[in-house]
Amino acid sequence: MKKLLFLCSFLMLCGTSFADEIIKMQATSLAVKTTDDYGYWSDWSDWEDCSVLVVINVTNDRVNIYSQTPQEYDIYDYSDEEMDDQGGTTTTFHCIDDDGVRCDMRIRIQADGQIQLYIDYSNLMFVYNVEPK
Question: How far apart are CA 15 and CA 48, in angstroms?
Fold first, then answer.
């Protein structure tokens, strides 16, 4: 059920058909945040321009990010969509990467329509600004 809710809300935003369970997005910029040896988070890095294809295959519960080093994530659980106090919505899915490390992936749609894809590890975070393809 969570998968269906995620798919419906995201497809409405992207304007793709319901039959198409592969969502393609183009990442246009990237920022990174890390922890130090004491567990304190850094500030977000400056945005870096990028041109990276992101493919979410809902049918196969997989996300591929075709960056310089290709990334593949298997989704093992979907969380309900949440609305924040700024009018944005976030959908989280729990993943395992190529190395078997767990992480969370969040798609945040801001009130102004900007879409961001976050990848959260215990000591590292990525955020991509993305656009539907």
Answer: 27
DSSP three-state, residue 26: strand
Map tokens 């924040």 to a residue: 84
Neighbour tally for 78: CB within 10 Å: 19
SS3 assignment for 56-95: EECCCCEEEEECCCCEEEEEEEECCCEECCCCCEEEEEEE
Which residue, 27, 10, 53, is CA-closest to 130? 27
Beta-strand pair 89-97/22-34: unpaired
> 117 near 25, Cβ under 8 Å?
yes
In contact, 33 and 124? CB cutoff 8 Å: yes
pTM of the model: 0.83
18-65 pLDDT tens trace: 445 899 999 999 999 999 999 999 999 999 999 999 999 999 999 999
